[in-house]
Amino acid sequence: MNFLTLPERTSGRRTYGLTSVIDLGTPIRELENILSDYSHIIDIAKLGVGSAYVTPNIKKKIEVYKEYGVKPYLGGTLFEKCYYQNKIPEYRTYLQDLGIEWVEVSNGTLDIPLDERLTAISQLKRDFHVIAEVGSKDSDKEMPISEWKEEIKVLLEAGCEYVITEGRDSGSVGIYEKNGNIKSDLVHEVMKDVDEQKIIFEAPTPKQQMYFIKEMGPNVNLGNVKLNDVLVLEAQRCGLRSETFYLGERECRLLL
């Protein structure tokens, strides 16, 4: 029975309002239990860091995600490892053998020049949906706002489906201060000239998630969400947590 008036959420095969989870080694049986209940509120799953390469039964895990309608992809660190060792052709074959349709191009660990990332994107997008990431995993490396904006613009123009803003699974780099506080000036400037439906904000903590929900609404794209947090996140999006209680209330009153 639905009797509350709540903020409108995208549903089904969403193109925005995405919840992208991070899987850092969830056992397959546990994963199946989680997805059997919550797959309808999970859109994308990143097998974090380079963990996919050493994951037992990795192909089975990929199949489980796909069976539940969740798009799996491998963390950008594995792309960077392959780039560093000149193994991108082998990486492409590896992804195809696994049945993966999405790939991340990042430079969070290595300082890969933008033009080289664009070359990789041009090659990979022939066979995959490409997600690019902007920002460094080095908390001491400050990237000028103008560079953030330019990279996001260029990466989207190059054909990336989405661009991720770096935050790590710790929420302490990239768009965040070392203490986890959001660089709000950076976020507001970056979003001025960008289609926010194409940006995925890495937001691993409830505090960070609630910031973006309150700033950009219930259908903001959020990434690096822990698998066990997806239900609470959906409640937050729907104004069912104290901190987001009044989300969309003005629009709701207009409907009544």
Automatic annotation (TrEMBL):
The lineage's top-level taxon is Bacteria
List the signal peptide residues.
none
The protein's matches in Pfam families, at most eight in alphabetical order, are given as: ComA (PF02679)
Q: Name the family.
A: Belongs to the phosphosulfolactate synthase family.
Protein name, per record: Phosphosulfolactate synthase
User: What's the source species for this entry?
Assistant: Lederbergia ruris
